[in-house]
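Support reply, case 0932

Customer input (verbatim):
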Amino acid sequence: MTKDRLRGLGYVEDVTCSLCNSKEETVDHLFFKCTYSSSVWTAMLQWKGIQRQPMMWANELEWAGKYYRGRSTTAELYKLVLAGTLYYIWQERNDKIFKGVQRPEVTLRRAITQDVHGRGEIDEARNEAKIWDVCPD
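Our regenerated output:
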């Protein structure tokens, strides 16, 4: 849970974002508007050839549904980037809170890119194996 939700339940008082230390940690702030997260998102969008700024969570989902619906390779790669970026930002936030460490944005971007490439290669190998009847569905 983000800090704003934890405060609502009475678990925390300080709701400052752990990644930028400047704004209240909400879902939209943590994943999209935080200077750290926004830098990561902007790079990931540019990597996919998408020339726009990160949006709020609901808008991001609506946009993804409009432009990346279906099972095409492009759609699947975008979904991997979306899920990977959310996952890595959440992990980075938890590492900062619980371990006191935070990697530079460039390191996080590199990790996401490598992870997406790796998963894409696994999916590509699976699809090729299905074509040759080597791997069941």
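We compared this against your earlier run and they match. Two observations from our side: The helical segments are 3-8, 27-33, 35-47, 57-67, 73-99, 105-131. The radius of gyration is 17 Å. Please reopen the case if you see a mismatch on your end.
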